[in-house]
Amino acid sequence: MKGRFPQRCRKANPVIVLSSAPSLGPLLALGALRSPFKKPSAGADFPRARLVLASLRPDLRKLAAYERVCGFATGDDGLPVTYPHVLGFPLAMRLMSGRDFPLPLLGLVHTSIEIVRHAELPGDGTYEISVHIEKLSPHRRGTEATVVTEVRVADDVVWESRSTYLARHRTETAPADGPREQERAPLPAVEEWRIAGDVGRRYGAASGDRNPIHLHPLTARLFGFPRAIAHGMWTVARCLAAHGAPERARVTAEFRAPVLLPGTVTYAEDDAGRFELRDGDRVHVEGRVERLGPGPLQGRPGSVPLPGDQ
């Protein structure tokens, strides 16, 4: 089964096989300490290694906690479509906290994610996880890194994602803005969600991502937020728990604005597979779910409309 995303120069890049998942706490601390010494630039070199965790079984206790905080049904046989991101995140953090990663970890913003799930992943399965940094790109507000995560069973890629992370900094020549997106009417509202103030701490405990901006108002204020903010991956996971995703699916999501905790937001969706989380006219996250066609992939997977698509 061929993967969705390009793997440029993979043969020339080192492969580092890990015996266990790195601990996120020390990596966050190390990345924070190194951040003031980083000089972000789209032309900078970046780590080319591909980190591999050869045999990983999900921790069912942590999986159940993740399902509860994100709103997925507990006890299902398959992993939630967003959960492999949690499994690969420690490897991504090892790369992004390293001395040779040019973007400062402090202030790095997760701006988008694309997920392609080729098959359902059993919760009691054993998987190979690999993570590498694909590229750095200029952005009108700084520099963006693209991080690719792949999950394999034997030689088959069963799940893969591409995440973009933005480091804001001054740019000498900002790229020209592309064509403006055509304004559209808000999606039909489905329900209102009241988000508790401890969601960041609960998600952090389940995922291991204990970034201080998500944990407490005092630590969030150190980074310019009036209150703690929800994890971006919690917001998209919560939307997908409400929306659902077929076994073979492509999910795209963009993180537009942080969700302050506690808070009240509106979840909305339409028959074309689009969803969003908003507060009045302010959109926090927007995305889409597409069903993939059957059969093994050959290059970029095709998709077929969800029921109701035109």
Core attributes:
single chain, alpha+beta, twelve-stranded mixed β-sheet, 6 helices, disordered N terminus, disordered C terminus
Q: How does this model look, in words?
A:
The chain has 310 residues and is α+β, with helices and mostly antiparallel strands. It has helices at residues 24-34, 60-70, 83-96, 199-207, 217-221, 232-243; strands spanning 15-18, 50-56, 109-117, 127-139, 142-153, 156-168, 189-195, 249-255, 263-269, 274-279, 282-292, 303-304. Strands 1, 2, 3, 4, 5, 6, 7, 8, 9, 10, 11 and 12 form a twelve-stranded mixed β-sheet that branches. A hairpin with a 2-residue loop joins strand 5 (142-153) and strand 6. Helix 1 (24-34) crosses helix 3 (83-96) and helix 2 runs antiparallel to helix 4. The longest helix has 14 residues, at 83-96. Residues 1-11 and 297-310 have low confidence and may be disordered.
Pairing-aware structural class of the strands and helices? Answer: alpha+beta
- Count of discrete alpha- or pi-helical segments spanning 4 or more residues: 6
Order of helices and strands: EHEHHEEEEEHHHEEEEE
Helix fraction bin = 10-25%
Termini gap: 29 Å
| SS elements, strand count | 12
